[in-house]
Design goal:
TIM Barrel; globular; alpha/beta; 39% helix; binds magnesium ion
């Protein structure tokens, strides 16, 4: 297992420059700006990767349109579940897959949205078809399609993977999202989708305290993500992918929190090493 950081693609910036300062050698690259999805930017990313010596763990692709980041407004706005957003976002994710292949990323990651719990809900079959469309596009380019976890329950995620039925599917397990959305916890999720986990977002958080809000993201070790159980479970699963630290704040506190997470994670990896 190797520790990395989530880097953001922004015009005119080298997204990998800060990562070596953490003493790390791998990163996921995230993008929410569709204007970045072109050959010239891909060339710049490849140049920045080579210059910094960073290995790319995956490309995280966003999409356009309004998104409500909680369990109340999320089902109607997130990912490729909502009908009024789906066709455009499928197209944007395919462009993201083309870009991921251009920069040498092994996989595309995204939030598919609040995949319906009821497999008889027509929205479920439509969503599975849309995911298959994008995942096939990835497969044709020789890359994986990985679900970022946490807006759907682990069982629904497992069923969706089975129903899409392709060999390039995987999971990017975000250790806080299930908690933040009040849907479960990452330890139990590993029981259900553990064999599909390819990358993690190492993040911590606390559960929502009302039925309409997102829980609160907190620094590593201060929330309900139980890394003393997650790390041994990953070893048991034979997981050899990347642990990508994600801290969704900005400025000096983000840097301090990432450094703290690198230190604590390094200790845990050593402590539980079989
Ligand atoms: Mg995440």
């Amino acid at each position: 297992m190797e520790i990395g950081v989530l880097a953001m693609l922004r015009k005119g910036e080298d997204p990998f420059a800060p990562i070596r300062d953490y003493g790390l050698k791998t990163a996921q690259l995230q993008n929410w700006d569709m204007d970045n999805l072109n050959a010239a930017t891909a060339e710049k990313v490849k140049h920045d990767l080579a210059a910094s010596g960073i290995r790319l763990a995956a490309f995280w692709a966003g999409y356009t349109g309004k998104i409500v980041w909680n369990s109340y407004g999320g089902p109607d706005t997130c990912g490729i579940v909502p009908r009024d957003q789906r066709a455009r976002r499928v197209g944007e994710l395919k462009r993201g897959a083309d870009f991921a292949a251009m920069i040498g990323a092994p996989a595309l990651i995204t939030h598919c949205g609040f995949i319906p719990e009821n497999p008889m809900d027509p929205l479920y079959a439509e969503t599975v078809a849309a995911i298959k469309d994008v995942a096939l596009h990835c497969r044709e380019r020789g890359i994986g399609f990985w679900f970022e976890s946490g807006q759907e329950t682990p069982l629904t995620l497992l069923r969706t993977i089975e129903d899409v039925g392709l060999d390039n599917l995987g999971v990017n397990l975000d250790t806080a999202n299930l908690i933040l959305y009040g849907r479960g916890n990452p330890v139990d999720a590993l029981e259900v989708v553990g064999k599909y986990v390819r990358n993690l977002h190492v993040k911590d958080g606390v559960f929502p305290t009302d039925g309409r809000s997102l829980g609160k993201e907190v620094p590593f070790g201060e929330g309900r993500a139980d890394f003393d159980r997650i790390i041994p479970k990953l070893y048991d699963l034979g997981f050899t992918g990347e642990l990508i630290i994600e801290r969704e704040i900005a400025g000096p506190q983000q840097i301090a929190d990432i450094r703290l997470a690198v230190g604590k994670l390094t200790e845990l990896l050593e402590k539980y090493k079989p």
